[in-house]
Amino acid sequence: NEIHLNTTLPALMNELGAAYIGLHGWDQNTTSDGIRLGRRYRYLQHQSDNFLWRYALHPALWDTRALAGISSVLMDPGDDLSLRSAWAFERRAGTLQTNEWGPSYRVCGLGMLGGRDRLPRSVNRHIKFLLLNTLLWVIKILFGKTVQSKAVNFFMHELLFFDGPYPMYWSGVMQKGKLNKNLEKYLLVHRRRGDLSLIKDALQ
Fold first, then answer.
1. CA 15 to CA 124: how far, in whole Å?
2. What is the mean pLDDT of residues 46-75?
């Protein structure tokens, strides 16, 4: 949704004095913690100061001063290189107990869809999550956590796609130097073989 990406979210960032607005929606079966704002603020989630992933490195809108400030605190020249990974950045940034850079937010992804079919898409995704969560709960009650975990892995390709103003797939196209298998399965299940072929051609 170009309007939200180019106009709505930058305006909200200025109004709220935000350091960060994550485009990985809080509303789609994802780990999150915070307070949902009202309609005026497009149901952004004001992430809790104690939430470890409030500066996740998924696509996001950053105040570059905040990003530079957080990076300068974390980039101690004496650090072990293992502390400079993206995962380490997220965890370490999430432990900083300072409001110097401003609060962090996360979008309501399904409330910021673009295109003519945004309402049917939003309803479809809500129903899909409701059905999957109900099915996984029933499996847990009937067969236990081990079987439930296997079922979660079976449906992972669906659970790891996040729709919104900037649709994304969890951990991206690549995973450990290879095409993300869950993304590949997602594209096949949704009959998007053309997109999959384009990606595979680009990787050759």
1. 32
2. 90
Kindly report the number of other CB atoms within 10 A of residue 38's CB atom. Answer: 8
Which sign, positive or negative, has the C-alpha torsion 52, 53, 55, 61? negative
Q: How far is CA 36 from the centre of its chain?
A: 16
Residue by residue, DSSP assigns 143-194 as H-HHHHHHHHHHTHHHHTEE-SSS-EETT-SEETTEE-HHHHHHHHHTT-HH
At 63 the pLDDT is: 93
CA angle 148, 152, 158 (to 5 degrees): 155
Q: Which of 20, 55, 27, 29 is nearest to 43 (CA)?
A: 27
Residue 104 DSSP label: E
The C-alpha atoms of residue 38 and residue 70 are separated, in whole angstroms, by 29
- Lookup: tokens for 92: 């370490």
How far apart are the C-alpha atoms of 99 and 54, rounded to whole Å? 13
- pLDDT tens digits, 141-193: 999 999 999 999 999 998 899 999 999 988 888 888 889 999 999 999 999 99
Helix (H, G, I), strand (E, B) or coil at 82: helix
